[in-house]
Amino acid sequence: MQVRFNYTPIFLALVLLLTASTAQSANTPSALRSINPRQSPTDSYSCSVVGQCEVCTDLEKKTQPYCKEFGNKQRISCQYNKDVSDISEPLPMFRGCPRVQWVERARYYQFVVINVIISLLAVGVFSWRHRKLAGEQYRKMAQRIGISV
User: Fold this and answer.
1) pTM for this entry
2) Transmembrane ranges (predicted)?
């Protein structure tokens, strides 16, 4: 009699645990913290974050300084700290940001799906090989005893 252990519940529990922990870490206060108002080098204006991080267009990546570092932009709202009559520089509307939430989520799910596929293939090969070796051992044992298989 052969005892078989089913790894499927353990695998599913592990995937659910990892998915839940990642979703929880995305909602932590550090991930949702607001950006403090930023002072420019001349202290003539201060800015605060207004929108979500978005992917820059190809043209913006080539022409705009805020898109060159990360390839992403985030809308900001800026106000002058002083009288605007003597200031000639325009207020910025965007700033660079490191990660776009929907792109990172898509990459994460792509990673999970690829790992699940690889895991299923590995379990399939393992099961096939295990059955093949068990069959060979059974035939050898039957041959020793003299039973026809």
Assistant:
1) 0.52
2) 108-128
